[in-house]
Amino acid sequence: MEENMEKVVSMPRIGDAAPKFKAVTTQGEINFPDDYAGEWVILFSHPADFTPVCTSEFMTFASMEEQFTKANCKLVGLSVDGLYSHIAWLRTIKDKIEYKGMKNVEVNFPLIEDITMEVANKYGMIQPGEDSTKAVRAVFFIDPKGVIRTIIYYPLSLGRNFDELYRVLVALQTSDEFGVATPADWRPGDDVIVPPAGSCGTAKDRMEGKEEMHCHDWFFCTQKLDKDKVLDTILKK
Questions:
Q1: What is the residue-wise DSSP string for 93-131?
Q2: Average pLDDT over every residue of 39-54
């Protein structure tokens, strides 16, 4: 009976402290998440070096790195490949791969060596039902206090939507800064959700200008939040 039981995958949860680890990366050793205290971090895994979907993702992340950096967010990648494989793959991307107008792309953020799968297992990145020897495409958003705020998992065959990853980062910071929630498909400049009338003082007081609140019903109230105000607050940290 025990032989037929599925292996339980240990997975951290939203609101948990990010599991700590030390690792060797393409940018030297890191002590995670302590080295990133005071900054947002996106920790993400990919199945394997020298694979096409992963190559497209790393080129996209590298091309957007400055955009994430301006939003006080660092990128950290991981796969269960070794350091020399990482280095060779990233060199090949820079020297030989051109995709969607991206070429000569240099990946400067750290890529973790995780041959033992220690880190991948701590973060539930190895999911036996998908593959027992490769990490799925996991994405962890970790805030400046080292707390996991969002977790997204993708199967091996599906490349990530990087506009959505950036949107999530901005939305999380907007919620923290202005004491609001963000509705479906929210982007900077769209209305935000505030607590209903009678309990909305905190949110409204933190939003300069105190724009008029619109209540669609007693449980659903929205308020304008200027796009420039959002971006100025987030990008000037």
A1: HHHH--BTTB-S----S-EEE-TT-HHHHHTT---TTT-
A2: 96
* pLDDT at residue number 2: 44
220 phi and psi angles, rounded to 5 deg: -140, 95
Grouping H, G, I as helix, E, B as strand and the rest as coil, residue 161 is coil
- Which residue among the candidates 54, 73, 200, 221 is catalytic per the annotation? 54
pTM of the predicted model over 0.85: yes
Sheet of 137-142: strand order equals 28-32, 21-25, 111-113, 73-79, 40-45, 137-142, 148-154
> Can 54 be counted among the known catalytic residues?
yes
Query: What is the DSSP secondary-structure string of 87-103?
Result: HHHHHHHHHH--BTTB-
Let me know: does 33 contact 18? Beta carbons within 8 Å.
yes
For the beta carbon of residue 221, count every other beta carbon within 10 angstroms.
20
Domains of the chain, earliest start first: 2-160 (3.40.30.10), 172-235 (3.30.1020.10)
Q: Tokens at residue 202, please?
A: 């905190």
Nearest to 120 by CA among 59, 53, 32, 29: 32
